[in-house]
Write a structure and sequence with these properties.
Blueprint lengths: L2 E3 L3 H4 L6 E4 L4 E3 L2 E11 L2 E11 L5 E7 L2 E5 L4 E5 L1 E4 L3 E11 L21 E5 L4 E3 L4 E4 L18 E4 L2 E5 L2 E5 L2 E5 L2 E5 L1 E3 L4 E9 L4 E8 L7 E10 L1 H28 L1
Antiparallel strand pairs: 1-10, 2-22, 3-4, 4-5, 5-6, 5-7, 7-8, 9-10, 10-22, 11-21, 12-13, 13-15, 14-17, 15-16, 17-18, 19-20, 20-21
């Protein structure tokens, strides 16, 4: 199986009430925009970081908070057990729990002649200029001005050699990521060094410079959608839940007072 099956999910959950999120791909849920940001394994628990944002009509952020529901592997309880996380407001609570999640898959199995590109879909070969934007499955990629003095560990250039890098900014939910593939001419040989971001499922090569057109050739590799991390979660709003707890506390206090009063009456008789 390619997913973590939460115990009794099929019995207790209605598919229409659950929302599927791919990592770093925001989705609208009522007034919230929800993004699956990351997950952290602290055995036996896996914590899932979900970011919730509320935007005003002018696009400004009114609310921004994270919830961290978790799944606990518990063989004695029959499988994975979800534990919710809650956002508390004065008059309501937002209760969120994971109902299903992807199991991390290993990379393409190595074999004779194996290349890293086999972990990705066929590349898109594109001619780009500074300022161009490209849509990827992870976010919007923007081509930045070329870096003529890249800092690369153990890179030694002889007179006449050339090494330049092409900064590429990918914005995901407002958060910028930078990939900076390298293009190098050393002697009579041409080399390029790809850069990748596993979280985004993205790998980029900088393969050619066309100076007369002020353009560059890049190759964009993206992992298949099904290879990306995903979660299915459910959020429930409990209005006036605090009034319920206040009522419960008042009832308990009243019960305790009645016990003391009854004991006092028995003593004075």
């Amino acid at each position: 199986t390619n997913e973590i099956a939460v115990k009794d999910f099929e019995k207790n959950e209605k598919p229409g009430e659950n929302i599927m999120l791919y990592k770093n791909e925001p989705k609208k849920m009522g007034r919230y925009t929800v993004t699956y940001v990351s997950d952290t394994l602290i055995a036996p628990n896996t914590y899932y970081k979900l970011n919730f944002k509320v935007f005003a009509e002018d696009g400004k952020i009114k609310e921004d908070f994270d919830l961290n529901p978790r799944i606990q592997e518990n063989a004695q309880m029959g499988g994975a057990i979800p534990s919710p996380d809650t956002k508390h407001y004065l008059t309501t609570d937002i209760y969120t729990h994971i109902t299903s999640a992807a199991i991390r898959q290993g990379e393409h199995e190595e074999h004779e002649g194996h290349t890293e590109e086999e972990n990705y879909k066929a590349p898109r070969v594109m001619m780009v200029s500074v300022g161009d934007t490209i849509h990827t499955s992870s976010g919007i990629l923007t081509v930045k001005p070329i870096n003529s003095k890249p800092v690369v560990k153990d890179l030694t250039l002889a007179p006449g050699d050339l090494a330049v890098s092409l900064p590429l900014e990918i914005k995901v939910s407002g958060k910028p990521y930078i990939l900076e593939p390298l293009f190098m001419v050393k002697g009579s040989n041409v080399f390029d060094f790809a850069r990748k971001n596993d979280e985004l499922g993205l790998r980029v090569r900088f393969t050619k410079i066309i100076p007369e057109q002020n353009k560059f050739e890049i190759q964009i590799f993206e992992k298949p959608q099904q290879a990306k991390d995903w979660v299915v979660f459910k959020s429930i709003e409990f209005p006036y839940i605090n009034l319920y707890w206040v009522g419960t506390i008042v009832m308990v206090i009243g019960f305790v007072i009645s016990i003391f009063r009854r004991q006092k009456e028995l003593v004075t008789r």
